[in-house]
Structure prediction request, 406 residues.
Amino acid sequence: MQFQTYAPISTALHLRVGCDPRASSYRRVLDALPEDDGTFRVPNRAALAAAEFEDLSEDGYDLRLAVWTPPAKEGEAAICYHIYQTGVTIAETVLDIEGPPDAEHLEQEVQRRTRAVLAAHEERLHALLLDLAARLPRDLLRDEPRDRLSTGNWISRAAILTDADRKDPAVEAFVEDWLRHTIRPEDAEAVLSGRCDHSMTWLNYVVVRTSEERFEQLTSVMRISQAVWTAQDRLNKTLRETLSVNLHSPKIREAAEELRAGRARMQMLRIQYETLQGYMNREKLRLLEDIMDGWGFSRLMTLGERMVALASARIDEIQAQRAERGSLVTDLILVGIGLIAVLELSLYLTEFSREMLTRPALGYNDERVSDILSFFAGVDADTMFGSGLALVTILGLIYVYWKTRR
Prediction:
């Protein structure tokens, strides 16, 4: 029996926010990537060269950065890597497994063999990603892709049937058991009776290979749904970690930058996903929405939106704190200038009063000596300076009281 699996791999190769396949900057990405050959191709080269909606069987918008199909040796499982610009790579593996069609056994065996194939190609994939990162313009990359690969997400597995398999009693029992824990186990009867050619709701899929075009459509939807879900799930985890670290961080500038970056990535993925839906043909879109509904993707996105709202609130709070601190510093500077001016005034009055009394010629326009100047001239310098300090202290206390009680 043949199985096709989809394993998400998290990588550090992702383009910066705003570098979208429909953006003008994406042309630099396409020019930097290697030319298409028998094992490597760039889907958006053909997609952007064609007119929009010219071929309704093809998507005019593709989030994949590249597709790599390493040559398989004789007896090895075929594998194809779909490298997305969101830091997610979907490994598509084709497995032929002999033996009795026992659903529980095959479910474990399919996942075990998929992981073995992934491990066999891990080093080569990592080398390819580093090579692609070295080719791409540095200003279009979000981070330096040095992290090791991660396969922390689940493996979706599709049992591939033919029309003849529907009439096999053993396969019939297998399909019913295979879909037993999915969201719609009743799909087993519909597939076996010929009323539909697929069941794609939750991890265990069944696809009847009626034609190559239809099969490519179904497998493409399974891959896209896995890629979008993984990207959203990864962003949720990253933003949740960012919030836990920066929600009460005293380093407000760094916290604001990290929160803004996480919020922008989350919002950009939502934009790209909705843009992708606009370019898909109606049947493919219906299949995608069917899978996403089965996975509860709306709940995942709602969770992301709530974290974005929390991040926005924290950013607003940080900006308010920075504005308040700026205002406080400005006030303190002005208060300091004012207090120093008070001290200077007291010293100047003493100096000027004594100068006027000792040099009568300075007041030749006055009818008599000023009583005020005489008073200040007679005050002891220490007393005058102490009075100025006392006045400065009183004014400072009045400012503090007003600032704290405002």
